Amino acid sequence: MTVTIGLLGAGRIGLTHARALAGIPSARLAAIADPSDAAAQAVIDLTDARRSEVDEIIADPAIDAVIIATPTDLHAGQVEQAARAGKAIFCEKPIDLDIDRVRSCLKVVAETGARLMVGFNRRFDREFRALRAHIKAGAVGEIEMIQLVSRDHAPPPIGFIKRSGGLFRDMMIHDLDMARFLMGEEFVEVFAMGSVLIDPEIGAAGDVDTATATLKTASGRIAVITTNRRSPYGHDQRAEVHRSKGMVSIGNMRATSVTLANGGGFHTEQLLISFMDRYVEAYRRELTALVMAVESGGPFSPTGEDGLRALELADAAVRSMESGMVVRL
Ligand SMILES: NC(=O)c1ccc[n+]([C@@H]2O[C@H](COP(=O)([O-])OP(=O)(O)OC[C@H]3O[C@@H](n4cnc5c(N)ncnc54)[C@H](O)[C@@H]3O)[C@@H](O)[C@H]2O)c1
C-alpha cells in the first residue's frame, strides 16, 4: 500500500518532512499547501506534489494522512478539521500554546475516533532509543536521576520567537517529553528558572534564552533539564540516566568520529550545527513510523495525550519561573 499524504506548511520543518517522505518508499507526498510561493516551490522541486489549499487537501478523499507543519496557532483548528474529515494526522509540537485549547482539540480527536501523532521527533532518535532500551532492560537498576542538556547553536529569528510561546513551550517541550519518555513515571513537581543572557531582544519579546527545570515524580525520582538558545560549538544534546547499579549516558554527534591527536591534545570535528542535521534520521524514522501505522492500522505514538502532558509541564515551568515557587501538578 502507498500512503498518500498532504502537507500543510512548508517552512523549516515542513521542508524537512517533505525531504524525509521522499526517502520512504511506501509514502507519496501528493499535495502541499502554503501561502508562501517560495516555501511551496521548494517542496514541489523535490517531490511530485501539487500545490493546493488546506481545505482542499483535508477534503480530498484520495489523501490518507495530513502532516501539519504550519505555525503553532493554526495547529488545533487544522487537527480538528482533519479529524472530522477522517484523516490520519501528524501534528507538529505543540498542538497549541493554550492548554484548554489543546484539551478541546483532543476532545474532538477522541469523539471522531481520529488517530493523531505529535511531532516529538527525539523519541525516534537512535541514541535516545538505545538509552531507553537500556533503561527498559533494567541492567543498571532503578532510575534515580535524569540529566538532559539541550542547547541550540543559535537562536531562531526574533519573529519566530515572538510567536513561539517561549523557550519552555517551544524548545524545552522536547526535553520535557524526553524526560517523561525516559522516566516512565509522571512528574508531580516542577521548579524552573530562566534568564536573558544571550540576546536582549529575546527579553524584550517577553521570553528567556537560558533556563533550567527540575522535576520530581511522586516516588521522588528527579530530572534536571538545562536549556539555552546558544552553543558556539554546535547543537549540544546530552543525556545521563543515573541508576541504583550504574549510569547510562549518550553524548553528542559529529559528522565523523575522526580524532586527530598531536602535541596540542586530541581534536575532533565540531558538533553537528543545527537540530535539523542532528535529528535528520529521527525525522525520517518518525514519518516512517507514521506511514507504517497508517498502513497497518496500528497505534500512533507519541499521542495527543503526550503532547498535552508535555505542555502541562512547560506551563508549570513558566509558572514556577514567574513565581519563584515549586509548582505542584
Ligand atoms: N519537531 C521539531 O523539531 C520542530 C522544529 C521546528 C519547528 N517545529 C514546529 O513546527 C511548526 C512550524 O515551525 P517552522 O519552524 O517550520 O515555522 P516556519 O515559519 O518556518 O514555517 C511555517 C510555514 O507555514 C506556512 N503557513 C502559514 N500560514 C499557513 C496556512 N494558513 N496554511 C498553510 N501554511 C501556512 C508559512 O508560510 C511557512 O512556510 C511550529 O509549530 C514549530 O513549533 C517543530
What's the structural blueprint in terms of helices and strands?
Layout (H helix, E strand, L loop, with lengths): L2 E6 L3 H11 L4 E7 L3 H10 L3 E2 L2 H6 L5 E4 L3 H13 L3 E4 L7 H14 L3 E3 L7 H12 L5 E9 L6 H7 L2 H4 L1 H12 L3 E9 L4 H5 L5 E8 L4 E7 L7 E8 L2 E5 L8 E4 L2 E4 L6 H4 L1 H17 L7 H20 L3 E2 L1
Parallel strand pairs: 1-2, 1-4, 2-3, 4-5, 5-6, 7-10
Antiparallel strand pairs: 7-11, 8-9, 8-15, 9-10, 11-12, 13-14
Helix pairs in contact: 1-2, 1-12, 4-5, 5-13, 9-13
The site of nicotinamide-adenine-dinucleotide has 24 residues, from helix 1 and helix 4.
Number of extended strands: 15
Distance between the termini: 44 Å
Order of helices and strands: EHEHEHEHEHEHEHHHEHEEEEEEHHHE
Tell me roughly what share of residues is in helical segments. Answer: 40-55%
Count the helices. How many?
13
| Alpha-beta content class | alpha/beta
How would a crystallographer describe the biggest sheet? 7 strands, mixed
| Biggest sheet, spatial arrangement of strands | 12-11-7-10-9-8-15
CATH fold label of the largest domain = Dihydrodipicolinate Reductase, domain 2
Shape, please? globular
CATH class term of the largest domain: Alpha Beta
Report mean pLDDT, rounded to a whole number: 96
